[in-house]
Amino acid sequence: MSTSDALPPIDLGPAAQYPEGEVFRVSADDSGWNDDIAVVHAEDGGFYALDDTCSHEAVSLSDGYVEEDTLECPMHASAFCLRTGVPETLPALRPVKTHRVTMDGDRLVLHPGTPRPDGDSAP
């Protein structure tokens, strides 16, 4: 994914409305991206975004589970690293794409198509 894939940022509203440890879905219709996007308010307090479709089966990752720094697929339990999108457990072998998430004051902003810098998350 290159920065030429980047789409306009999306204001997702106040970050406080998203409970820690939860996943929510931003539809492809709303983002303009070619897949829904799973946005995670992780247990570390950061926000992360990944393509919503598991790379092993066509299953929505936003229906999965946040486990420390991973998002676990609800079908076969592949766990994807929130920072890199790389699967840390089988059966998935291919990573899912990441998207940058930032804060604008108290508001959460999703940048569809802009890769998340490694090790960076919105507070």
UniProtKB/TrEMBL annotation:
Domain Rieske per the UniProt entry, residue ranges: 21-110
PROSITE patterns given in the database record: RIESKE
CDD domains xref list: Rieske_RO_ferredoxin
Source species, domain of life: Bacteria
GO molecular function annotation: 2 iron, 2 sulfur cluster binding; dioxygenase activity; metal ion binding; monooxygenase activity; oxidoreductase activity, acting on paired donors, with incorporation or reduction of molecular oxygen
Alphabetized UniProt keyword annotations: 2Fe-2S, Dioxygenase, Iron, Iron-sulfur, Metal-binding, Oxidoreductase
Name the record gives this protein: 3-phenylpropionate/trans-cinnamate dioxygenase ferredoxin subunit
Organism for this UniProt entry: Nesterenkonia sandarakina
